[in-house]
Design a protein that fits this description.
The protein is α+β, with helices and mostly antiparallel strands and 143 residues long. It has one domain: SH3 type barrels (Roll), CATH 2.30.30.230. The termini are far apart.
């Protein structure tokens, strides 16, 4: 399976119990982008995924027993990005399941944070040198 290959989580007929996600231009249940956010200026950073007008707190989902992958309990996306492609796919599938199957609504509703009350943070701290040149022609044009 390719990392970005469409699967059942991209089904255009899939609906979410998060009402603001249904018909949302940016964050319907078919598009679950990861983010890092804080609930307050002194709060711990959390990994989340956007859904409608909310963010699903993945650390809270882990604590509630909805997600068993410990990579989501970190304070950056490094651990999620380091997962093998199969595990990232399984995580996306699990998130889709949680957000589209009403059986998870009661447990997951407490893990939702209104996006308007969250502060988005730098998703990954780069710890070492990163080559930002995308190609030889990019390097030539910069210099």
């Amino acid at each position: 399976m390719l990392d970005n290959a469409p699967d059942q989580t991209h089904d255009p007929h899939l609906r979410s119990w998060v009402e603001s996600a249904n018909g949302h231009a940016d964050f319907p249940v078919q598009n679950l982008p990861f983010c890092v956010f804080q609930r307050g200026s002194n709060a711990k950073r959390c990994v989340g995924t956007a859904i409608g007008d909310s963010i699903l707190d993945l650390r809270a989902c882990h604590a509630a027993g909805l997600i068993d992958n410990p990579a989501v309990t970190a304070d950056s996306l490094r651990s999620v990005m380091a997962l093998p492609v199969e595990e990232r796919g399984a995580l996306r599938e699990r998130l889709s399941q949680i957000l589209s199957d009403a059986v998870y609504r009661e447990a997951a509703q407490g893990c939702l944070v209104p996006a308007a009350s969250a502060t988005l943070c730098l998703p990954v701290d780069i710890g070492d040198y990163t080559d930002f040149f995308a190609s030889l022609s990019h390097a030539i044009n910069v210099g």
